Amino acid sequence: MDLIRIIFSILLPPVGVFLQVGLGGAFWLNILLIILGDIPGIIHAVWIIAKR
Fold first, then answer.
1. Which residue pairs from 13-18 have beta carbons closer than 8 angstroms and sit at least 24 positions apart in sequence?
2. How far apart are CA 36 and CA 14, in angstroms?
3. What CA–CA distances, in Å, run from 17 to 11, 32?
4. pTM of the full structure
């Protein structure tokens, strides 16, 4: 399942974070990072998935 989440986090980072933590603070932080730039959002999503 983690492989699917990592693939989602590369293609659509907020979806990968949502699958891992739901609509928590990490999800909204990822949305903000995606607005600021795609690469920070991808890094954050992969980090959230790898951490748990």
1. 13/38, 13/41, 13/42, 13/44, 13/45, 14/41, 14/45, 16/45, 16/46, 16/48, 16/49, 17/44, 17/45, 17/48, 17/49
2. 13
3. 12, 13
4. 0.85
pLDDT digits (tens, 9 = 90+) for 4-48: 888 888 999 999 899 889 999 999 999 999 999 889 999 999 999
Q: Residue 52 pLDDT > 80, yes or no?
A: no
With CA atoms as reference, report the closest residue to 43 among 13, 1, 12.
Answer: 13
**Are 49 and 9 spatial neighbours (Cβ–Cβ below 8 Å)?**
yes
Q: How many distinct helices (H) and strands (E) make up the chain?
A: 4, 0
